[in-house]
Specification:
By secondary structure, the chain is of the alpha+beta class. Among the domains are: about 1-20 and about 365-445, no CATH class; about 555-685, Methylamine Dehydrogenase, Chain H, CATH 2.130.10; about 695-810, Immunoglobulins (Immunoglobulin-like); about 810-845; about 850-880; about 885-1045, Alpha-Beta Plaits (2-Layer Sandwich), CATH 3.30.70.270. Helix 5 packs across helix 6 and helix 6 (about 930-950) runs antiparallel to helix 7 (about 970-995). The termini are far apart. GO terms for molecular function: phosphorelay sensor kinase activity.
Length: about 1050
């Protein structure tokens, strides 16, 4: 099907009778190839007033209808929103700058100054307030500048101002009316030189603020002074890498300042000098790393200016060239960190000049222009390195390019002229002498050109001569010795042609003869010295003609043999410097080495951009360059590495043509296609070695973008380290971008969600990762990217994603569930136990029923016994305890002491203490408050005694309002401490409980271990004596028997 289509196209090509035409073009210094971005590509407005790149790598474009944020793929536009007080308040944005703290400032026309917070995506506005002299002087801000000290300078129609760094105050430098040359209020541009002096361009003069004296100097045009500045309007201020200060002016050209003489030199447009700048209005100045100055002009496009020679080269818009500037009015120039030069126009949007698109020189026909190729559809190339390049086209005849002068001469077929070119579709060249060029055509036979006379002799098929060429549709040519040529044809086999005799020997496919040619359509020929000829056929695989035997040997595709030829359609043949044969087919590249059996095939899986390989050429390093149906590929045979170049790299097209590849003697490579001819030296191709920075550009839940300020995204995603999501919002997408603007379409991505993905997932050029139905937990999303040349960043961008569990999957719920399960198990155990008990009771019931009478009698007996025991115990208690206070009574107290002393064999040597306590004025309490209150007080005191003695101590009511305490193994100090504590508690607690103070006096007697013959009643008598002493001393005190009055510690 493809073959019939090729034939149809070739037969339908018109043969136009045109005489040689001379035109001018060049492959040596082609103009820059710009890419246009305007309203159709998403830019908010075609008038670009300012360009800047923030610290994250985003580009910002200020226009006359909105502010644009650009990530290489998409424009985000900021415009006024009456419903949002934090939105931009003017659509006309004239200037922009980033301060050291990362804040972005934008100057507007009519709404003053706007400060943008990237975290919250909110604008804060600074406007002129007539009542505040420290406010911004005017709401039309034309210029913003951050000096070397980090200060923000604002140029407006109200003068030059400096933001004070905090609040809303500005310091404004106003004109001095007494100054002979006052500072102009309308500030256009602000800049700084290496000394720290500030330069201010205005509509009415150039001003300098000296960094040391803080005094302004004004520079104005002076017709009498040739060293004066050439214009009063200064729109650009720039100091280059050599320290030279340049100014762009309105109507005064480009101006250079000499700081020694403080004079100016102007570079102006001179119509008589093509090397002068193209326009006298210079809006902007930019220096590129090569030291050249780029100038944006009002009517002359962009100029590339050499500051050393003063020569300029202008690049202007061309209506017929979509890769030229979109407008000649270039207002802003900027070079981003990836090396892309941006030219913003006042009426044509953006122009992007990427180094990538300049890699490959391109020669093509320009529609509507006579100066250039006859057509861009290139089919053959040839040069001997003598400065002449022969270019064959499909339907456009022969083009001769003089590479020294850039002149192109076109030769066309003319049926009325027998000395003209045989046909306008050319498939191959061969030049055997300096003055003779052989031209293979498709439909016009074989032409021999006599170069000096520019005449042609054509050999065609003669139906009346069977020894003539079998067809006029030829594809390839290889010298065969003795002045003869091997020619490939379209459908008519292989031809050995002798131009001297005009005789042709034809080799055709013969079905009955296996050793004949396999297919009559030949796409490629390659000589194998004097041994044989390699023949690439269209449907019959690869043939080899052995000159000695005259037989054809075949290499065909065999699906069952992976070492066979990968496809039977062969487009190209090439032998490298190592002698290895390479075969380009419809289904991959094949490497053939006679020392090894069969072929080694390279396919898409090996890195090829496309299976169809049209042309093969080798560079100086041994790498192969392959033209395919989807770009140009560079294969390193030693490593297998493949690099691919596409239309984004400056190729004429991603599609190339068969026959149209060539290598010049000096190593220059040529590849042609439907869009023109590419030429390049492989060693001179630049490579983008800078890994791209990565940012996040969006976050979505269930395919709905999450707005900044929401619960999910409280602020811009690039300022967050973690995103937390509830369990029912676990379907999310993260969008990202590599901020390398050379060729964003060629940036590639890999990502991984740690905690879910095991390995990195290749995403190609796709910039979104989506995850669904993730289990609750904490994950880390990682993304990394490569630039257009496959250079990957080593440190991926990361953000943590937390999926919060539902309440029934929380630890609290698990704990409650566990407790419930334990309770359930315990309940089951209790139920089982109760059930077993119930069954036991049922079994026992039968026994109980039989012995009921006995049990009833026994129960009654036991009841009577229990009652007697209870009565006995109660009697015993009444005998032992005081019925009012519950402590031991006096009788049981002495009985307990007898038992105590009886158990102790050496009780006479035992140490103990006795405390006698008497409630002070107890009769008065009974008389004043009643006996019930007095009883309650005694109960309270008894309770206090129980709580403040030791377990082994014995407390008893001694009689009336007296209590006694026996404390074994107790010293004087210990007994006194306990007594004092009891006295204090009684005084404090009875007041709280009864509303009046109740105190107690205590006497203490201690028997030491040395007093062997002392009886207890003697010790008790001592305590009573001490108690009496306490009463005598004023009550509410503790007295120890035998101590002087001065030893009491508390009254």
């Amino acid at each position: 099907m493809k073959f019939r289509l090729v034939l149809l196209i070739l037969f339908c090509l018109a043969v136009l009778p045109v005489h040689p035409v001379h035109a001018s073009a060049s492959l040596e210094a082609p103009p820059p190839r710009f890419q246009r971005l305007s309203v159709d590509e998403g830019l908010s407005n075609a008038a670009v007033m300012c360009i800047l790149q923030d610290r994250d790598g985003f580009l910002w474009f200020c226009t006359q209808n909105g502010l644009n944020l650009y990530d290489g793929y998409r424009f985000t536009i900021f415009r006024p929103d009456p419903a949002n007080p934090y939105s931009l308040q003017s659509s006309i944005v004239l200037a922009g700058v980033e301060t050291p703290d990362g804040a972005l400032w934008f100057g507007t026309d009519g709404a003053g100054l706007a400060r943008y917070d990237k975290a919250t995506q909110r604008f804060t506005h600074y406007r002129h307030d007539p009542a505040d002299p420290r406010s911004l002087p005017n709401n039309s801000v034309w210029s913003l500048f951050v000096d070397s000290q980090g200060a923000l300078w604002v140029g407006s129609r109200g003068g030059l101002s400096r933001w004070d760094g905090e609040g809303r105050d500005f310091t404004t430098y106003l004109p001095n009316p007494n100054d002979a040359r006052p500072l102009s209020k309308w500030v256009l541009r602000i800049g700084e030189d290496s000394t720290g002096s500030l330069w201010v361009g205005t509509r009415y003069g150039l001003n300098r603020l000296d960094s040391q004296t803080q005094i302004f100097s004004v520079f104005l045009p002076d017709p009498k002074n040739p060293g004066a500045i050439s214009s009063e309007q200064v729109w650009a201020i720039y100091q280059d890498s050599r320290g030279t200060l340049w100014f762009g002016t309105r109507f005064g050209g480009l101006v250079r300042f000499d700081p020694v003489t403080e004079s100016f030199t102007a570079y102006r447009h001179d119509p008589a000098n093509p090397a002068s700048i193209s326009d006298d209005t210079v809006w902007d100045i930019l220096e590129t790393p090569d030291g050249m100055l780029w100038l944006g002009t009002e009517k002359g496009g962009v100029n590339r200016f050499d500051p050393l020679t003063g020569r300029a080269e202008a690049f202007r818009t061309s209506p017929n060239n979509p890769e030229s500037l979109s407008s000649d009015d270039i207002y802003r120039l900027f070079q981003d960190r990836s090396g892309v030069l941006w030219a913003g126009s006042r009426n044509g949007g953006l122009n992007k000049l990427s180094p990538v698109r300049q890699r490959f020189r391109l020669l093509k026909a320009q529609p509507g222009e006579e100066n250039g190729l006859s057509t861009s559809n290139i089919s053959a190339v040839w040069t001997r390195g003598d400065g002449v390049l022969w270019i064959g086209t499909q339907g456009g005849g022969l083009n001769k390019l003089n590479r020294r002068t850039g002149e192109i001469t076109v030769y066309r077929a003319d049926p009325a002229n027998p000395n003209s070119l045989g046909g306008d579709t050319i498939t191959a060249f061969y030049q055997d002498r300096a003055d003779t060029l052989w031209i293979v055509t498709s439909g016009g036979g074989l032409s021999r050109m006599d170069i000096p006379s520019e005449t042609f002799t054509t050999y065609r098929r003669n139906p009346d001569d069977p020894a003539s060429l079998p067809s006029n549709f030829l594809t390839s040519i290889v010298p065969a010795g003795q002045g003869r040529f091997w020619l490939g044809t379209l459908g008519f086999g292989l031809v050995l042609f002798d131009p001297f005799t005009g005789k042709a020997q034809t080799y055709r496919h013969q079905a009955a003869k296996p050793a004949s040619l396999m297919d009559d359509t030949i796409n490629a020929l390659l000589a194998d010295g004097d041994r044989g000829l390699w023949i690439g056929t269209h449907r019959g695989g690869l043939d080899y003609l052995d000159f000695r035997s005259g037989e054809f040997h075949h290499a065909l595709h065999n699906p069952a043999n992976p070492r066979s030829l990968s496809d039977n359609t062969v487009f190209s043949l090439y032998r490298d410097r190592q002698g290895t044969l390479w075969v380009g087919t419809l289904s991959g590249l094949n490497r053939y080495d006679p020392a090894l059996p069969g072929f080694r095939a390279y396919h898409l899986a090996d890195g090829l951009p496309n299976e169809t390989v049209y042309g093969i050429r080798e560079d100086e390093t041994g790498c192969l360059w392959l033209s395919t149906a989807r770009g140009l590929a560079r294969l390193d045979p030693s490593s297998g590495e493949v690099l691919t170049y596409t239309l984004e790299d400056g190729l004429q097209s991603n599609q190339f043509n068969i026959y149209s590849d060539f290598r010049a003697p000096d190593g220059e490579l040529f590849f042609g296609g439907p869009g023109g001819l590419n030429a390049f030296y492989p060693a001179q191709l630049s490579r983008n070695e800078a890994p791209p920075s990565i940012v996040f550009t969006g976050f979505s839940l269930f395919n709905q973008p999450a707005p900044v300020g929401s619960e999910v995204l409280p602020q811009d995603i690039n300022t967050l380290s973690e995103i937390s999501l509830p369990y029912d919002q676990n379907v999310f997408s993260i969008e990202f971008a590599a901020l390398d603007y050379q060729s964003p379409a060629q940036n590639r991505y890999q990502y991984k969600l740690e905690g879910f993905d095991r390995d990195w997932l290749p995403a190609g050029a796709h910039r979104t990762a989506t995850y669904t139905n993730l289990n609750p937990g904490t994950y880390t999303f990682l993304v990394r990217a490569s630039n257009n040349d496959g250079v990957w960043n080593e440190k991926p961008r990361a953000i943590h994603i937390t999926i919060r569990p539902p309440w029934w999957q929380t630890r609290v719920f698990y704990g409650l569930t566990l407790m419930g399960l334990i309770g359930l198990v315990l309940g089951i155990i209790r139920w089982r136990t109760a059930e077993m008990r119930r069954r036991t009771r049922e079994l026992e019931r039968a026994v109980c029923e039989r012995t009921h009478e006995l049990s009833e009698a026994n129960r009654k007996l036991e009841g009577e016994i229990d009652e007697r025991i209870a009565v006995q115990r109660e009697l015993e208690r009444l005998v032992r305890t005081d019925p009012l206070t519950g402590v031991f009574n006096r009788g049981h107290f002495f009985a307990s002491l007898d038992e105590e002393f009886a158990r102790e064999q050496a009780w006479e040597r035992r140490r103990y203490a006795v405390i006698l306590l008497d409630v002070d004025h107890f009769k008065r309490v009974n008389d004043q408050y009643g006996h019930l209150v007095g009883d309650q007080a005694l109960i309270t005191i008894a309770d206090i005694l129980r709580k403040n003695v030791r377990m082994r101590d014995i407390v008893a009511r001694y009689g009336g309002e007296e209590f006694v305490i026996y404390m074994p193994e107790t010293s004087v100090g210990e007994a006194r401490a306990v007594a004092e504590r009891i006295r204090r508690v009684i005084e404090e607690q009875t007041r709280v409980l009864h509303g009046f103070p109740v105190t107690a006096s205590m006497g203490i007697a201690v028997k030491s271990s040395e007093e062997e013959g002392t009886r207890f009643d003697e010790v008790l008598q001592r305590a009573d004596t001490a108690l009496y002493t306490a009463k005598h001393r004023g009550r509410n005190c503790v007295v120890v028997y035998g101590e002087a009055e001065g030893e009491r510690e508390q009254n």
